[in-house]
Structures are given as C-alpha cells and as structure tokens.
Specification:
There is one protein chain. Among the domains are: about 100 residues, no CATH class; about 110 residues, icosahedral virus (Jelly Rolls, Sandwich), CATH 2.60.120. Helix 1 crosses helix 4, helix 3 crosses helix 4 and helix 4 packs antiparallel against helix 5. Strands 1-11-17-13-14 form a five-stranded antiparallel sheet, with no helix packed on it. It contains five helices and 17 strands. Strand 6 and strand 7 form a beta hairpin. The longest helix has 19 residues. The protein has about 325 residues and is of the alpha+beta class. The protein is elongated, with a radius of gyration of 27 Å.
C-alpha cells in the first residue's frame, strides 16, 4: 500500500480554544469598560401576570464572561416568582436547564432587590425561563457579558486556526472533528487499512471508493461497509476486513484510484481535546502574536521548551 496524498475535506466547525481564552492567555483587552461590557435584556421590564412558564429572548454569550441579573420590583400579595437559566447550542436547538442556574424564589418578603448568577457553561446561547404563581410581579432580566475587545480580534481569530493547524502538523493528529480523505495506489495485501491523522472519531461518513481502469466517472465504485469493520480504539485507527472477505481485485486507474473518507478528531466539543494540546495552541498563538516577523526579539526559550514537552506525549509517529 502506498499513501499518495492526504487532504482535509471538511474543516472543524469550531476551534479547540475560543477568542476569549486566547485573549485572556495573552492578557489582551481594550482597557475600556464600556467596550468590554454588553448588557442585553432577555426579559424586558414590565408588570407580568401569572404564567406556568415563559422563556426570555435568547442572547449570544459565546466568548464572554456572563452574568444573569434579575431586577425584581414589587411582587403582589402571595405571588411567587421562580427564574432559572437555560442554555442551547442554537436558538432553534434543544434548551436545557443550567446546572445550579436557579435563582432564589422571589416573593413579597424579598422583592425590590437585585439577584445575580454567573453562567459558567460552554453553550453559545443563554436565556431565562420564569414561572409566576398566584399574583402579578414587576421585574426584568438582563444578561451582562464581559468580552474584552481589541483592534486585533480578527488577527487573533486567524492565529487560533493557524496555531491549531500547526499543532496538528507537529503531532500528526486531528484535534477537533474534521473530515479527512487520503488516496492510495492500490488495495493492501494485508487485511487492514490504517487511517492517518488520528484519532479515528466515528464511522459517520466513512467510505472507501475507487475508480476502475478506463472509467470516466471517478470513484464510482464503493467497498461495502459490510465487508470490513472499523477500529476506533487503535491510534491510528484501522479498517479491517471481516473473515471471508477480500479487497476488490478490479484493475484500477493510475491516478489516485482509491479514496478513503473518514471522520477524525477527539470530538466535536472543545472539552474533548486534551488540555495539554489546548495549552500548546495558546502558547503558539502568543508566540505568533508577539513575534510577527522572522527576526525575533526577547524570545522566551523556556516557553518554546514547554511547547515541545506538552506535545511530545501526543505525537503520532505513524507516517502522515
């Protein structure tokens, strides 16, 4: 078997570290509280009637330190107001209650006060959900975000991707889930095909396709998934022929006739990527930001040494 070429055909939908994490690591912000703070109303101020459950307006809290603030006015008579945080990946997605995200119940005994809870989750959207029993209550719910801004936000966002790709090249790994494709000259003599740039994430989108000699449509033939099993445990992963099956014996085109497509990465969430690899990305971002030319001043050699030590245990020495 000869591996001729490899490509990333679908890039990750997110990076292992956020813009906020990178800026916090580099201690970069605007220094202006007005620029750094955004306040959004998820429930506008008004007098509300009893309800069994009403949702506030979703607010995008990605890359922010976030606080939900309830400003309670008058609660009438025996009214009881219960408010909690809910989170989701998208405004039209599944909304779940935030763990430890419920406010103290508000009654006439503790109204005309301000209540606040910090949001420490990782979802992109946040909203309030309130239940008001028995009588009317006046209140509003605001979401305050602290997201330091800087003129270099676009640059830093680009450096995050560059740093992730650099770490992937050094380690021969795929960090966040991404679709990869590699090409072979011929089918192996053995019963297995090794998949470069591990980890082999899942069988979603997995395909082995090939072009027969003289065929005008490339990769018009597929090896049935019933003929082989997928090993997602080994690093790198493998595709292994089942007992009694063989790889196709058809004559093949001479130009990259076999294409293998698969999903590689530690997972689709940032939390799936090992912390040492994320720290290595942050170090790389910092170096690229501080030293933008070939001539490097005030180089912290110890930091570069740490980068190598962080990556060494994860390096995949298999080719590609």
């Amino acid at each position: 078997m000869a591996i001729l070429r490899m490509a990333q055909t679908v890039a990750p939908v997110l990076e292992p570290v956020t813009l906020l994490e990178a800026k916090n690591h580099m201690r970069v912000d605007s220094g202006d509280i007005a620029d750094d703070t955004t306040v959004s109303q998820t429930v506008v101020p008004d007098e509300y009637t009893p309800t069994t459950g009403t949702n506030g307006t979703p607010v995008d809290v990605a890359n922010s330190k976030t606080l939900m603030i309830v400003n309670a006015g008058t609660v009438v008579g025996s009214g009881k107001l219960d408010i909690k945080m809910q989170e989701a990946d998208s405004t039209g997605g599944i909304w779940n209650d935030v763990e430890d995200g419920s406010f103290t119940q508000i009654t006439v005994a503790n109204d005309n006060a301000t209540f606040e809870l910090e949001y420490t989750g990782s979802k992109q959207y946040l909203r309030s959900h309130h239940v008001l029993a028995t009588a009317n209550a006046t209140f509003t719910v605001n979401i305050t975000e602290q997201a330091p801004t800087a003129v270099d936000d676009t640059l830093i966002t680009t450096l995050i991707t560059v740093a992730r790709q650099h770490v992937e090249r050094i380690t021969n790994l795929s960090l966040i889930n991404q679709t990869r494709t590699f090409y072979m000259d011929n089918f192996p003599n053995s019963n297995e095909i090794w998949l470069p740039r591990p980890p082999f994430s899942s069988t979603s989108g997995l395909a082995i396709e090939y072009t027969g000699s003289g065929e005008t449509t490339a990769y018009d033939n597929a090896v049935s998934t019933s003929t082989y099993s997928a090993d997602t445990i080994s690093k790198p992963g493998r595709l292994i022929l089942r007992d009694g099956y063989t790889w196709p014996s058809a004559s093949l085109e001479t130009n990259n006739p076999i294409r293998v497509t698969y999903l590689a990465g530690y997972g689709s969430n940032r939390s799936s990527v090992p912390e040492p690899l994320k720290q290595a990305i942050l170090i790389t971002i910092d170096e690229l930001y501080e030293n933008r030319e070939d001539t490097v001043f005030n180089l912290n050699v110890g930091q570069i040494g740490w980068l190598n030590r962080l990556l060494a245990p994860y390096k995949n020495w298999w080719p590609m």
